[in-house]
Amino acid sequence: METNAAATRHTCLKLEIPTAPSEPIFIKGTWFDSHFHLTITDGLNAWVCDASEEQVKERASQWDQPVSEYIHSAEQYLGFQQPNSVYQFTDASDGHKRLSWTFEKEGTKLEWRWKCLPSSDNKKITGGILDFLMDANISLSEEVVRKTQSFERLKEEAERCLTQSEKFNNEKMEFESAIYAKFLGVLNSKKRKLRELRDQLSEKETSGKLPVEEEESSDETKSFDEGSDDAKSEEKPPEEITGTSKDVKSSRGRGRKGITHK
């Protein structure tokens, strides 16, 4: 039963007939996997069409279609009025009606027809269609309310997110401006410091060349003088070799003391 209920679909179409646009009819369809049932009313009279599995299978084989494809096509045309299709609801014998609609297949315009029998209880059929429309209208109204409420919630959330995003953006810009200002201050300070160091270095290089050269020349002169004194001290001992050994020893001692004194 659950499988059958899941496979059952319902549609209701307000069909405007070109030959009588001021007198629309309502077609309620109940669709199954292999057959369908139609109830039709113009508000006063009612008709029914029971398409059995055998009839649907025979019609589908005539059009070289699977049964499921035939059912789907019929539901499409009787569930929603197709603008390119020509619908007719004409009289037949004995109070019967013939419901037909056209469609195109591979460039050829074709027509499907189903015979509808007069209902034995017009009020019941008409009331059933009205009840279905009322239930559908209530369901649609509730769905509209739910969608509207959901939309309002989403709208409020979007506005809140937009406000928060603008706040974050402003804070980001303020933060970046402050950081850039600090960075520029530090950068300019470093530039000034580098210029001062460069100027100081240039001044030292300009004023420090001459004193350095003079100091180097004085050092060389001093080294040369010390070297001459050493040479003189080394030349004295040979002149005193002719004396006695005591004199030699004493002179050497005096020489050592003199050198040490210096």
What would you say the CATH architecture of the domain at 9-120 is?
A: Beta Complex
Main β-sheet, spatial strand arrangement: 1-2-3-4-7-6-5
What portion of the residues fall into strands of 2 or more residues? Answer: 15-25%
How many helices does DSSP assign? Answer: 6
Shape: elongated
CATH structural fold name of the domain at 9-120:
Dna Repair Protein Xrcc4, Chain: A, domain 1
Rg over CA atoms: 59 Å
| Helix/sheet category | alpha+beta
> What would CATH call the homologous superfamily of the domain at 9-120?
DNA double-strand break repair and VJ recombination XRCC4, N-terminal
Question: Mean pLDDT across all residues, rounded?
Answer: 81
Please report the total strand number as a whole number: 7
Calculate the terminal CA-CA distance, rounded to whole Å.
132 Å
Give the class-level CATH name of the domain at 9-120. Answer: Mainly Beta
> What proportion of the residues is helical, as a percent range?
55-70%
